[in-house]
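Assemble and predict.
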Amino acid sequence: MTIKEQLAVRAARVEDFLVLCMRDRGIPERLLRSMEYSLLAGGKRLRPVLMLSWAGLLGSEGVTDRIMPFAASLECIHTYSLIHDDLPAMDDDDLRRGRPSNHKQFDEATAILAGDGLLTEAFGLMSAASIVNGLPADRVLRAVFVLAKAAGAGGMVGGQAVDMELTGCTDVPLDDLRTMHAMKTGALITAACECGAILAGAGDADVENAREFGRNIGVAFQIVDDVLDVVSDTETLGKPAGSDEAMGKSTYPSLMGLEKSKSLASDYVEIALTRLSGYYGAEQEFLWQLARYIVDRVY
Amino acid sequence: MTIKEQLAVRAARVEDFLVLCMRDRGIPERLLRSMEYSLLAGGKRLRPVLMLSWAGLLGSEGVTDRIMPFAASLECIHTYSLIHDDLPAMDDDDLRRGRPSNHKQFDEATAILAGDGLLTEAFGLMSAASIVNGLPADRVLRAVFVLAKAAGAGGMVGGQAVDMELTGCTDVPLDDLRTMHAMKTGALITAACECGAILAGAGDADVENAREFGRNIGVAFQIVDDVLDVVSDTETLGKPAGSDEAMGKSTYPSLMGLEKSKSLASDYVEIALTRLSGYYGAEQEFLWQLARYIVDRVY
């Protein structure tokens, strides 16, 4: 199987869980439709897949089944952030994954609440990994702590706030751009890997490898995203191509050019790969290929 | 001390924690100001105080200090819900606690993100009750599970969604109104009491007493809120009086009249008090008086 096919197989397993996870929770019908509209709109399920793979690499047999609710919670958090980012008061995007964005399909109030609901349910799912699936409570709680920090106001939410402040500023210093992205997209990808290791019961050195792998592919992923916004078309992206430039956002290509951006992404992937050098087996192989695939998308 | 003074003393203790809890977390400066603007805008701190008091009633010495981060997280969740409810796409309120609402003081994007940030940080604070303060992880995780359900799309968030749907409908059936309020405001008050008992390590019967006490004072609290919106003035409320009627919201007074509403609130408080009958001491006395105080505000 190609890495793309392997990714699809793993994403499908996450999908199977996501399809059911918001049901029978007493959620009002229209709100549930709005939450599922965005949660089940496809996507690579990169964050859950990363978590499951790191847990599989470092944990005992069956650990990936037991942490599935936790992995799914990452997709809930990612989805809520997309719904809120698309709102008129934020990036004002009408299109997401080739379909009307949530507030276009429903309405603004429902989109705000669907995001709030997904974020809150995410933490319920995390605790379910222990309460329903029997993972040790201290591991799960430590992962909740790490994830709340990554997704919160000093992480993902703060990154979006900084992004809004920087929008319209030309010549943003590269360091500020890097910090913003590290918060906005990097923190959750990093936490996905780190929490996979924590949930598997790994020791400190393994947890650090997972975290640093995540941090570096997170940067590469963002650079590639910026590059794709320039070189790809709207149909392939599922959202308007060239939207960064149209919104006056500084990006890696706008600050350092396309070729240098691509080469920088490759450098970050190489650093990430060093964190895999001490491991063996199918999960190591998968993570290795996945890291390469992130940057190969632009070639 | 009167119950009002006792409540103020306990609120001040929560306040002391809230003042510091968002600092040194790497939150961008303007976002932090926006979060603290609403979090530190006063308020009775009813939910944390209820949690601390139930934990004090049922737990061992020092338990209230250890669960303080968890208690504070309730105020973060309550505050985020107010910020989002006030947004133009929702209730469109310009005034909150006598000051401009968050999106008026800052801007809409910042208000959305401040709410998202407070909600996410809340779960970080909950896990800190174990990771920093050493409470048993299984207790804390069970409380996280209960709280996520109460605050989520089948609870508080769902209640707001139903409230939006019902707004403008006259003659909403009383049962629908009760269900909506049970989700929108009741669920978090109920969870505050229940989680106080859980965090104290109480047994099932005590946890049930805490939960049912919370459920009943929650209903009473909402009825009284509706009554105050009719009989009070804008200055006392800190928000526009008569706003329910102006927005075409069905309320207890609009469906059953003022006197019947007041008497119904008293009935719920009486039911709540039966749940305190087996306990003794200062915390029992405080909870008893607090329950009475809720309904006394309208006399």
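Chain B has a mean pLDDT of 93.
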